[in-house]
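seq as requested:
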Amino acid sequence: MLSRRWSLLFIAALSTFGQARTQLDLDSFEKVWTTIRDKHWQTKPGGLDWQAIHDEYRPQVEMAASHDEARAVIQEMLGRLKQSHFAIIPAVVYTVLDDEGPTGSGTTGIDARVLGGHAVVTSVDPDSPAAQQGVRPGWEIERTHGIDLEPLIKQGRSNPAIHELQLTRAVLARLSGPIGGKLDAVFLDGSGKTVNLSLDLTAPRGMSSAFGNLPEQHVWFENKRMGQTAYVRFNLFLDLPHVMASFQQTVENCRTCDGLIIDLRGNPGGIGGMAMGMAGFLVDKSNQRLGTMYLRDSTLNFVVNPRAKVFSGPVAVLMDGCSASTSEIFAGGLKDLGRARVFGTPTAAAALPSAFERLPNGDGFQYAVANYISEGGQPLEGLGVTPDVVVELTRSALLAGHDAVVDAAIDWIRKKP
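struct tokens:
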């Protein structure tokens, strides 16, 4: 009798759980559908009758026997758009990426990328805590804050909706923490030796800057000469007065340079108008455009603003999977105009304002709110900028002190007549 009672209670509990799960999936479906209805750049998303799409797919979510089946239905609905950057990310993956561990803006001076399935140091800021303790490019990062990075990387690489940009951000977040704190990390050095370090977390490099609704961030700009070649790199299209003035000064001091390298690897974008202004130092023709962005209520033409003093020599732009938004517009536009040669790896394919949100059922939802067409007629969203010369970073080259992407750009410039 007791056994039958517990069986009935168990069945009732399963029924209640199933109803709760179904409601969460329905709430998630409604949030996805409503977001696209209200925020998509087309009043008829993908040219579809979006209300009819709702009426077609909601019953399928109601009938789904599991959360996985409901997710598949929502993903199929997004697939009807035939547009990139609309995706559902399973909760197990999104939770791992979204859990950044200790929060804070403190940094050790390390930049890193996922190379060959491992987190690898790609550069170390001079005089940073990491540099002072001997961390070198090419070192593998195995653990931070006592947590292995391998599960995070495996989860991120397991889902095609997770792009290199999101995975790299998740890795870098685990290299940060509160200013004044410590980062306990385990590295594998060039000889295969395990190195345990406790690194100070200090204020980020550069000057604090904000613009409009963009969050306040630290912006830095660096330039140097590599022989007769000028090299510039900056982390954001932000801090307009400083970055624009520094870029202008670099161009004006480069009259005798044999070429100019603009390193936008890791640059996630920022103020779109800066791409037009900076391109004006490199393009001497009027009425040139980098491309056009289409929003629901407006159209933005990225018109180049030619300057009085223009650099006319070879221009190489360096990109990677963490180059996004304004970086893609700048590089893709100059490439289409035949004004720059792009080196590195395909970009983030995130030229548009794109957002990630958590759904009621725990899954992640990515969506875009605009469309961008380059001057060459190609949409950057979902495709990104394809380099003219594909060059990948490798751990072995970094350990040997070589940046293969920079080397390839310099070699091209040296061979130009």
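The CA atoms of residues 138 and 395 lie 5 Å apart.
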